[in-house]
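As a warm-up, study this chain.
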Amino acid sequence: MANEYWASAPIDQIAEKVQSKFDEYRQHLKTSGYGDRIRKVYDAFYGFNSDGTLEVTRDKDKIAKIKVNHLKSLIKRLHILVTENKLAFQPRAKSSDTKSQIESDLAKGIVEYYGDEKNMHATLSRAALGCLIQLEQHVHCPWDMAEGYELTANGNQIIKTGDQLFEILSPFDVAYNTASEASPWKIVRVKVNKHDTAVLHPEFANEILGSSLEKDIEGLHNSNSFGSDVSDDSQDFVYKLILYHARTPSIQRGRKVEIVAGQVLSDGDLIYDKVPCFKMTAGDILGTNFGDSPAVELLPLQEALDAIFSATLTNNLNNSLQLIWSADPNLVTRKLADGQTLVTSASPPQALNLTGSAAENFKMLDLLQSNQQLLSAVNDTARGNPNATVKTSGGQALMIAQAIQYVSDLQKNYATLASDVASCLVSNIQAFATEEMTAYITGVTKKGQIKKFKADDIMQVERITCDLGSPLTQSLAGRHELVAAWTQMGMLKDPKAVVSFLSSGNLDQGTENEFSDAMLIRDENEQIRKGIQPIVVITDVHGEHIISHKSVYSDPEVRSNPAVMEVALAHIQEHIDIMRTVPPDLAAVLSGQPLPPINPPAPEPQQPQVNGVNLPNVPNGTPQQVADNYDQAVAAAPMTEQGGM
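Now compare it with the structure written out below.
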């Protein structure tokens, strides 16, 4: 049927439909000029000449060509400004109960583990740089059943737990609907080892082994910058096309199709919560789905810089030999030893200096460079060479913060990409991690431990958000300013927390104990609401517990329940009773105060003496009147201290 939706085609037609749709997208990149723009920025960033070389070249007319790549320096500095801080992931649970919060804490540790150990952070960072160079970048996040821990062996095939995969794809490798801002489908092209693929799909082994990577003259990886020949190593690989279609009214269960060498390897429902491929751009071209980048504005200035540098260099190279002029038509020159020249002339000879360049050339170079900094907002301080007028660390932090604010769109898109990828990771674990997996968990309340987990352990986590923080925290100078202020106010007391914040920009280490206490108090409040009286220990922060438990009986529903009120008030009274018994030393430690001084022992009472002789004590049982008379006689006698005369 003419109106049949291409993505709902039957299995015997879907391979052709997918390939046609992918080719149609690639043609659109060509006819729209978007692909040419990407290649120009790409070649300029990496400094490739038209023949792919990097060195200074000279043509037959002795014109020297040189690239002095300020564009690359500025783009890399923009990339560093956005990505230098470690990403701060915040899981969002489906509810606020203690179990959900503990699962959220575990999910955060898992995400950080994948970030550090499974290259998720590196992938996100490369995507941020890639979208500056290639205008857009895609992060593909499938669950790979060929990864993970080995479970069993079924014949020659090893069955594993599966694990998360992160890979970067260029705009030439991901096709999507350019007419809609939210494309319901994406076609992903990845390279796979054809020998492994043939083993996994023996029914198509001949077709897979007989295919190879075709020359991709419209893409980056085989463009003129690198040459169009396919290397011998590439003969082991073949392209796989993967269609992901979201759940829509036309395809209610979604669809996932894998195609190699024109053969459908698998066809079924979408097994993911959403399409596991996420796009990032530095900016957007309004009215289109195409990306934009500061590199586009910097490219003409870079080309002008290269032209002026090349012109100046050409002049110096072509006129580098010393020329001599004289009015004497009979001037004679003769080469001597050691490179010297003997000049014989009736008139004094004059040296001709043809290597001098006009002052306007150097003024133009300075003007072009300053305009590059102006357009990119990467000031001298952000480039690591602060102006002499910016002397304080606070001033430098402000200059860097201004540079970061300029790239706020890139920063927001980077945070959005990180949130999407981390949420996809958690969603995939919830869907596919039926067997135990292992991660090294560190951070808030995790204290560095090997943790086993599976899907059920984080089922309450709904999404992961990412916070990049204030621009002031994203530079070392800004963090120094904050630490100085916080230390002065007494907010930071742990040196390890200070070091952690200066290096990473987050305060997890400094808030770990506070998080644990908050989780304990929240759990106790839930117990009280159920009529269970929690245990009180002497090391509790009793004042904080009492104030936090007050919220329980501030609830009108609890106040109308005498049994719960009795438990709540009894628990608070127990805190008060135990708080009265806390030793002063322990109270000082818990409050963060120095220990109280140890009181010196009281002096022993001195034995009364008369002329150096100790007076006897009144024996027990002495009548009161006799004891009183004795005390009066002692008081009237001339007394000396013990050991005195």
